[in-house]
Amino acid sequence: MSKTKVxxxxxxxxxxxxxxxxxxxYSNLDIKLFEAGDFISFMSCGMELYLENSxxxxxxxxxxxxxxxxxxxxxVYANHExxxxxxxxxxxxxxxxxxxxxxxxxxxKLILSSGVTPxxxxxxxxxxxxxxxxxxxxxAEKIKAKLSDPDVKNITVIGAxxxxxxxxxxxxxxxxxxxxxxxxxxxxxxxxxxxxTDILSKELTSKxxxxxxxxxxxxxxxxxxxxxxxxxxxEYPSDLIIQAVGVKPNTDWLKGTVELDKRGWIKTDKYLRxxxxxxxxxxxxxxxxxxxxxxxxxxxxxTVARREARYVVEHIFENTPSMPFSGVVGSSAxxxxxxxxxxxxxxxTTAQKADIKINTxxxxxxxxxxxxxxxxxxxxxxxxxxxNPNTHQLLGGAVLSTYDITAQGNVISLAIQQGLKLExxxxxxxxxxxxxxxxxxxxxxxxxxxxxxxxxxx
Length: 458
Fold this sequence. Notes:
Strand content: 25-35%
Shape: globular
Structural class: alpha/beta
Number of helices: 11
Helix content: 10-25%
Radius of gyration: 24 Å
Low-confidence stretches: none
Oligomer: single chain
């Protein structure tokens, strides 16, 4: 009996999860995994830990080793770039990047997890030496070398999102002079509402980061190597520039074959199928279905890719899938020096982009009862809840503190996923123990505040 041929393109989170699910759910499959890179499979989300010497080895900062999947019978090909899909013959064209050999492979089912590539800011001087990106193993090793180079004194980070803030923190800890520049008016402004970004902006500044917002980059100056970043109103000496200015879908090779939107994202239906028969798409190159927004949005997270992969493989051999993909909330977390935050769902910025009306409520308190002093762990805590102004359904939220309360972000995520309202969260049955929290738990109190209830003060 011949085996069903399944090809997976891309060895990051989506590709990895797809193969895991395929090998554990089905038998008699011929599975091939193609990855254009030479290292399978570096986790760029672990780059800051590597730069700060907080990992065992750079070769361990990966989802899996090829042998981890090969033991289940999967063929794993590094340095193999899939360049074309031939839907009529149900074949993919693959180039071996080492030998240059081009070969075609048959598929019965094809899963695209082609991912994204970092944007290169198209300003004069972007081609100079020492203009880096912060994604992938090669860039990680290059940045690490610069952080330990005494001749590199001034580092400018372009982009104050997650990656830019991580780059700035790692550079400060390496003893460099760091400038963090963004075109919007506050760092992390696409991820958190103003009350929380105000706190984090002060934290960045207090730790030595020069934060420059509302800036337009005009050019990178220098001869062979970069020497400065010039904005519309200032110039910043720079021995190294780390660009963290977003990503673009890695889909140029699909143009004319797989249907894309005007920005290059792969179009899928509610079953994550492309316009081609038996071809599915998951991960960062796809606009994910957002549960709180009830529409497709760019949500580039490992957790999203893995959930999409799990769904696709569950239904991949059904003629008509028994149910559509239920969607994701979109949850993430980050440490910014001494602070830790987690965020889920929508915020004021993303809701506005999606043309969704929300109300937001900001709550500040202490973690434990008032009789516990601050030097005994009673730190300040902050909660933001975003909700539908008419129904009070939770659509987003975030938590922030110097104490690690990020697990509360998972509670918010689950509440959003299950369609809970402020009233549900205000009365949710959480434990109380004064060594941990208040008589009403933090999220109870935040929801009660949003509802305008009497403030609980003990």
